[in-house]
Write the structure tokens for this entry.
Amino acid sequence: MSQPEPLFEAILNGDAKAAAALAKAALDGGADPLEMVTNQMIPAMDKVGRLFECEEYFVPELLLSGRAMKAALELLRPRLAASGVQPEGRVVIGTVKGDLHDIGKNLVTSMLEGGGFEVHDLGADVAPERFVAAIREHNADIVALSALLTVTIPAMRTTIEAIGQAGVRDKVQIMVGGAPVTQSYADDIGADGYSENATAAVALARRLMNKNAVA
Amino acid sequence: VRNEYRQLAIKEVADLRYGVSPKPVRCGFDLEIGAGQVFPEVNFTLPALEVCAANWSQVLAHYEEIARNVVARAVALHTPGIVLEFELLPAMTETPEWGAEITALLKRHLREAHDKHGLRSALRVTPTDIRDQVKPPVLRSGEPWLRLRRSFDLCIAAGADILSIESVGGKELHDQGLMYGNLRAIVCALGVLAPRDMAWLWDRIVEATAVEPRAVAGGDTACGFANTAMQLAHQKMLPEVLAAVVRAMSAVRSLVAFERGAMGPSKDCAYEGPVIKAITGCPISMEGKSATCAHFSPVGNIAAAMCDLWSNESVQNVRLLAGNAPEAYTELLAYDCRLMNVAAAHGQALVLRDWMTESDEMLSPQAAVLSPAATIRIATAIVSESNPYRRTVAAGIAATGILREANVAGRLPLSARERQWLTRIEDELSEMPANEDTLLAAMQDEHGRLFDAKSYGLPEAAIA
């Protein structure tokens, strides 16, 4: 992309109204929705992620860009679906049972949506059986578990065990995150991946999708 | 409203210092807080352990060990007085009998230490505000509220000397405001929704504490609001100037507890405490450099400048070389307090206060709004207005003024992006509607799905 496209700029600047208007105009003009996503929208969110990582953007700028991305994507999604284009992956996300904290989980949700994933957010204090039901209902590729408290991270293990007992463990990749969680803990409880922050969560989700594809 | 604060209890910067409050609180086993000395307030929690019936004996064993060791360390160090804070975990509030059982256990240790060693002490108990389990939170009815209310009663009956809470009313909108940097949502949460919930909730807490056996209605904290902002700023997710302004504005909602009858000491994680102390004259608990076990803060020294209790926020009961972590932190706090009290005994409290202030003040916007002078300025702005909404805006404007002046004077360095945000916050605060009805209507349009109008005593039609 030699010259930044207006849709790219609108997403980069977090202008949801402009992004939606530009997406609609482009579609009305016969633009290919997949090209719009591939050449403008995902590159815009990738740049937003880089700006956040190098501390040029704060979370509000990042989330406003995510919101702009979503506004444009909602217009494109029916056309993409009609032409057989699938989302990057289907994610079921929630904070585990006993834990009411949801800011980090919301951040990851927004980043994953901005990264082209279809995300089903179950909220906070989510019981294992709700994760299992959501995996089945949404045909999920990935389950993302969040926890903030040292006394609630054991519920991550319980949730993973419940997913296994329900017979759907081999259908999903499981990623975990939250302040008390470490790679070592993730390995110990049998998660497939651990992310330290929201931007890294998108890269992790993409890696897990590739793992799914290989498997 | 039991107390209407239209002027400051502490008007002069020189009178706003650690250990002394115009309205000391006597409670527990012969402990008087705010009457000249600073005491440690030790807070503790479990290591990674699920709180459930199957693990209950392990849970109790942890609290037995914590209480035994903390009290022993306090006695060994000749601590003149100590407060233990028991913050219930969510499961201990959902099953109020569990929280009460641990309350009684802790009180037993304090009673024995008082009887045997003359250790002056008090037990603060803080049930978890579990009312936000559904979205949008239902605050004034339902099973979570009934369990929380029962938790108050059972914990008081079991021996709580001071009752506190970290209430969450308005947080559902505030989180959204923080995440999107939406000042109007933040102000509506802090200045309109939270004060309504605080008034309703604290009327009931004060009522619960007034029944025999009585307890002191301590105070609240804007932890879920301003400390969330502080931690997100620490992670470079939010501008520090925004966190600083949120801190100042959050004092208004925490003040409501005192308007409804709280007497202090306010909660340790309420860094807005100095503003509360200046306005009400009630003692406060603070945390800073000796709470690094729990979280980062850029206000480690300055936070102590005006405290009456000095806390470690929370530490897990894990083994260290020196013993278990809660007793190690008891020792840390005890030495911090010794130094403050000796300085005060020698008439040097203001010198130490000002050193603690100067060592942090201009290294972070969040410290800059916490100095004694900034505290008086923010508190004055608050009492100059008559309703929580206008007070919140006034506190925010006072905070931006403090930050801007310090930056322009070259005392407080701010990065370019922090300066951009400061300008944006100044602009948005100056453009806030004159009255809350206009703001509420806009918020209902924009974010109405996030909060339950009835939970704030708002007729739905009025804001639809």
